[in-house]
Amino acid sequence: MIRMLKCCMAVAVLMLSKPLHANSLPDGLQWISNSNEPLFASQDAIFGGTFRTYISSFPQTFRIVGPDSNGRFRSWLLDSRPASVTRHPITNKWVPDIATHWAYGDDEKTVYFRINPSARWSDGKPITTDDYTFVLTLMRSKDIVAPWYNKHYTEQVEDIIKFDDHTFAVVSTTRRNREELMIYANLQPRPAHFYKPKTDKNRDGVDDNFVRYYNFKAEPSAGPYYVDGVKKGKSITFKHVGKSWWGYTNRYYQHRYNVEKIRIKVIRDKDIARQHFEKGNMDSFWLDTPELWHEKSNSEAYKKGYIQKFWGYNQVPIGAGGMWINTSKPYLDNRDIRKGLSHVIDFDGMIKKVLRGDFLRKPNGVGIGQGDYTNSDITAPKFSPELAAKYFAMGGFEKIGDDGIRINSKGDRLSFAVTYSRPYHSPRIAYLKEQAKQAGLELTLNLIDGSSAFKYVLEKKHELSFHNMSSGEIPSYWQYFHSDNANKPQTNNFTNFSSDELDNLITAYRSEFDLEKKKAISRQIQQQVADEAIVIPGYMMTFAREAHWRWMKYPTPAMTRLTEFLFSSGTALDLGTYWIDPKLKKETKSAMKKGKVFKPVTVVDETYKL
C-alpha cells in the first residue's frame, strides 16, 4: 500500500474593514483562500510531448449546452474546465480555481468572489466579471434549447452581481447552508466575447441560431487546453496554452497538465484500439474490463517491460445508474412488472461470472458515497426467478408461451429491449438475457454506437437503458425524477416516472436549509425510487485501471480520493498529474530495436481502497 503524505492544513482569511469598491461590497466580509492544502502533483514532472489516446465515436457537437451536448465528450469541453473554486481531491475542502478568494454573505444566499487578475481565456482575452454575468444571459436564453439549464438558472440562481472587473457575487434564490450554497454559487464563466451575437436583433444577448451556429465551434478555454485541430469524424487535437498559462499562478495547478498536446483519434472498435496501443501508437489504454486486465494485457510488450500496468483505488461518489426503466413504454408503467425485472436482472451473477468479481454491486440505483445523503438501509434486489415470476403474474403475464416466454391474456410476450452503447458490454447484457429466461422474460440487445445511444435515450425511445451517470458532491434528483422532466426529450428523466409524492419530496429537498433535514429527505427520495423499482442498481467501479508505456510517469502516490483516470485516456482530462519522460521514451524505443528487455511492472495503489 502506498501511504499518503500528511500535510498541515490552514485557511487564510483576509478581513476587510472597508469595501473594495465604493457603495458596493458589504463591510466586514471574511475573504477565504485555502492556500495551504497538501499538493498532489510531482515536482519531477517534465513539460512537453504529445499524449496520444482515442475515443470510440466522434462527438455530435462541441456546444456545452443544447441538443446532444450531454455526451461522453462533454468532460473535455465542460466538466474538466476551471470554475470559481474547486474541491481539493484529498481533503475535499474548497480551494482556489479562477477565484483567489471568496466570502459568504450574512443573508445565507450570497457568495462573493475575487477573480485571479492573471486569469485568461485560451485566446488571450482576460476572464472578467462580465464572463460570469453572461452565464445567466446564456443559460436563461430559449435559443440554447436546453430546458434544464433554463429552469435551473432561473429557479436556483437569483442574480450575478458585478462590483468591478474582478469582483462579483452569485445570489441563490433561497437560503442555503454553506455546504450546499457554494455548490450552487460555484459557476464556470462563459466567454461573453465569443458568444456576442452577430446582429443587434438578438435582443436576449444570445444568437437566435445558437444551436446551429455553434454546433462545431468550440469556445475558448479557461483551462490549460483548447481545441486546436479537428478532422471531423477522425480526430481532435487539444493544445496547451503554454508554460505561461495563467493557472500556474495557482499553487494547486503547478506541475500539472504537463503535455503540450493531446491527440484523440476516433477508433470505433475497442479491440482495434488496443492493438494500436500495443504497437506504440497510443500512450495509455484503459483496462476497465476484466478481459483486458486478466487476459489481454499479457502480450510480449508487457512481458518485456515496455508496457506497464496500474491499478489504483479511489473514493469518487457513485452516480445514478444500472438499468433505467422507461415507464412510458407499454407494461413498464406497471410496478409489478418493474419489481419482477428488479429480481431477474442478475447483476450479482454478472459481476461474479462475467466481471471476475472486480466490480462491486451498487446498493441502490440513485448512487452512493455522499455521506448521510445516502440511504444505507437500501440494498440491491436479490436475483430470484421465483419471486420475479410472482410479480410478472401479478402484472398480468401468468402464462408461459411455447418458446418459454411469458404471455398475457392479449397474447403479448414479456419482452423488452436493452439499449447500450459499447460493444464490449454485449457479453454482460447477453448474460442478463440468459438469466432472465428463468422467469419467462425475454431481453433483446439493442446496441447503438456511442453518442448516438445517449441521444436515443435522451429522446426517450428506449425501453430499458443500461448506463450510469456521474455524480456531484450531493445527490441530484430533480433532473432524474421530477415530473417537470418526464416525457420530454433532452432531459435526464430517463425513466419518465412521475408522482406527486416524489415531486413534493424533491421540491422540499431543493429548498430545505437545515442540513440534517435535507439529508433525511434525500434518504426518503432514495427509498421511494427503490420502492418504485424504476432504476435497477447495477455495478460500480471504484478504481482506475490502466496500461501505459514505460515513458509515462506519475506521482507517488499516484491516486487521490477523486482520481478517476490516471491518464487522459479518451474519457476525461482528470487531474493531469502525469507526464512524458522523453529520455525514457528514447531508451524504450532503442531497447525494442535491440531486443533489450526490462522487468515487468504492475503497480497497485491501495491508498484509497474502500
What's the helix and strand layout?
Layout: E1 12-15, E2 30-33, E3 50-55, H1 74-79, E4 85-87, E5 94-96, E6 99-104, E7 110-115, H2 129-140, H3 147-155, E8 157-164, E9 167-172, H4 178-185, H5 210-213, E10 225-231, E11 235-240, E12 261-266, H6 270-278, E13 284-286, H7 290-295, H8 300-303, E14 307-313, E15 321-325, H9 335-344, H10 347-354, E16 360-361, H11 385-394, E17 399-400, E18 406-407, E19 415-420, H12 426-436, E20 442-447, H13 450-458, E21 464-468, H14 478-481, H15 500-511, H16 515-532, E22 535-537, E23 539-540, E24 543-549, E25 552-553, E26 579-580, H17 582-594, E27 602-605
Parallel strand pairs: 3-12, 14-27, 19-20, 19-21
Antiparallel strand pairs: 1-2, 4-5, 6-7, 7-9, 8-9, 10-11, 11-12, 13-24, 14-24, 15-21, 15-22, 16-23, 17-18, 25-26
Helix pairs in contact: 9-11, 10-12, 15-16
Textual characterization of the structure:
The chain has 17 helices and 27 strands. With 610 residues, the protein is an alpha+beta fold. Helices cover 25% and strands 20% of the residues. The longest helix is centred in the last third of the chain and has 18 residues, at 515-532. Helix 9 runs antiparallel to helix 11, helix 10 packs across helix 12 (426-436) and helix 15 packs antiparallel against helix 16. The strands form 9 sheets. It has a 5-stranded mixed sheet with strand order 20-19-21-15-22, with helices on both faces.
